[in-house]
Amino acid sequence: MRKFIAILFAGVIGIMPGINAARANGLEFDTSDPLFMMQTRDILSETSLTYWDNILRLQQTLSYGINDRLSIGINANFQQDFDGPEDGFGAVDLGGVYRVGTAAGNSAHIISDVLFGLKFGGSSRVRTPDYADSTYYAGYRFGRQWAGMTLAATIKSSWIFDSDRGMAYIDLMPEAYFRISQNWRLGTQFTLRKATNPHYNQEWLGGKIIRQYGRTQYAARLDYEFESDNLQVGVDVNILF
What we know:
This protein is mainly beta and 241 residues long. The chain has one helix at residues 2-14; strands at 43-52, 55-65, 70-81, 88-89, 92-99, 111-120, 135-145, 149-160, 167-179, 184-195, 202-213, 216-225, 230-240.
């Protein structure tokens, strides 16, 4: 599967010159783009609802653009376990993105970002590593934007200092994102996770379709995890103020 993803990603790069630049409209408002960067004093609300394996999770993120290179955000999430005891709030995620590559809006060169943050608080019953208490993370994201598509990849390392489950893991996430018309987008992502505890190793393949109305985007997602044979569905709403 990993070899197939690599071949697919290389193939997309190969057909890039044939993409029509006229299909894009308003890159600065395309908040689902993996290389989207907020401008000074922008506020972005991201609401996400996900269901899998009898668990429903609601996430809310608010981000603020300090300037055209730095944004900060806070994320809170709640999950309802319909078949077990893992109900409650996950750890609060306080993090940021700093653009170290080309200036925002310049699509002629490689763009690169540094990701950083920490997670704290939350219910001990919410055991998913992504929302574990006392977690620190740092990452690096790079890619290119064209009028019709964006290609990006992220490598991110997380360290969990939970007394019951101290561990670390690394995520590798290549993404391809297509602006297929003025208001419609398609995205796909593969996530490879390697953890110091092999029980938490994961391989996710996901896709989404997005409809844009001005500064608001609505998305439907479908993701499949190979290690656990798990399928999850979700919806997202992004609003840029």
